[in-house]
Amino acid sequence: xxxxxxxxxxxxxxxxxxxxxxxxxxxxxxxxxxxxxxxxxxxxxxxxxxxxxxxxxxxxxxxxxxxxxxxxxxxxxxxxxxxxxxxxxxxxxxxxxxxxxxxxxxxxxxxxxxxxxxxxxxxxxxxxxxxxxxxxxxxxxxxxxxxxxxxxxxxxxxxxxxxxxxxxxxxxxxxxxxxxxxxxxxxxxxxxxxxxxxxxxxxxxxxxxxxxxxxxxxxxxxxxxxxxxxxxxxxxxxxxxxxxxxxxxxxxxxxxxxxxxxxxxxxxxxxxxxxxxxxxxxxxxxxxxxxxxxxxxxxxxxxxxxxxxxxxxxxxxxxxxxxxxxxxxxxxxxxxxxxxxxxxxxxxxxxxxxxxxxxxxxxxxxxxxxxxxxxxxxxxxxxxxxxxxxxxxxxxxxxxxxxxxxxxxxxxxxxxxxxxxxxxxxxxxxxxxxxxxxxxxxx
Length: 443
Fold this sequence. Notes:
Layout: H1 2-10, E1 15-21, E2 26-32, E3 35-41, H2 45-56, H3 62-66, H4 76-86, H5 92-119, E4 127-133, H6 146-162, E5 173-176, H7 188-194, H8 201-208, H9 212-223, E6 228-231, E7 240-241, E8 248-249, H10 288-292, E9 325-329, H11 333-345, E10 349-353, H12 359-366, E11 370-374, H13 382-390, E12 400-404, H14 409-417, E13 422-425, H15 430-440
Parallel strand pairs: 9-10, 9-11, 11-12, 12-13
Antiparallel strand pairs: 1-2, 1-4, 2-3, 5-6, 7-8
């Protein structure tokens, strides 16, 4: 697939590339003069669209957005983005990030599908491709750096595969299978509040502010015990609330259980839930074939019960919302995960930001008390981001520690000039990270 995209890039191809599987999904990639400009198709395409709108246009009403363009409009989603740009409801930087991120997700899914079929020795499952010259949206919103997006998707797929998740698609929907198996866990209430059966792994990652790989690795420990299962389709949750204890009881999303609803209450989702100690290994729930090759299907209407989750009691294993929020702006998922493990273990709240283009916007929204900032990133480097932070009233006094593999005097001087507070060398080490926090934070 990478070679095919590179060939189209070399030929300065303008049109669409269709990738079809005989037994599964279909994807479409749009090119203009060899550069990727948009995507369509695949599993849960509607969910992908809504999730990206929520991420990059969180201040807009999604229902109203859908009314901007006629349902019969060609390239409808792309046309909606064009309307948003025309009405100055989205910044160009946000627009580029939205398009690039959605393309990278589709490329990831294609790579996973191809490798799954190859490893399964299933020749009928291989993708066939066709090109249609000239079929592209009439307006050009952004030219995406194809090599960069392809590299980003390839790196994300390799890290996902190396984590032992090759047979599990991030488009799967986690559901609580046996709630009683969660009740011994310190973070059970946060997990129950988060995993409601209506969001994919990617959606849960976005909602909780966690990297989807780190979140999935956490949930896998619960999949192996049978507490959580992965479904190719969303499943609304039904839970019995015990009147005596106020706690959920019985099996959840279990086809063998008949559950009655006692009352509707309001859900309170904690901003984050901490890592759960790995339980003993058990039999996995989802088979490899069904996990990756999940097809689109309509959501069955089920009675929806909203679960009330009381605020967690004080515990070292649970993140206290009064604790400082530490942000990490770094394009490396590995660095973000390392810092997350160090910080959450010490009770800090954490947010990882890997997209440098929207870093400042995300920092303004999350309002961190401390920022770790990578120096060398594609699109926008750490110097520029640090300069923008110091020009932003709500962030200008937040300590910014530069993460760098370099130790040059020129880099340090330049970073100081744009307002950096201090420096921390890579790879990150727990003692040095905590010392830096203690130095600049009053905890």
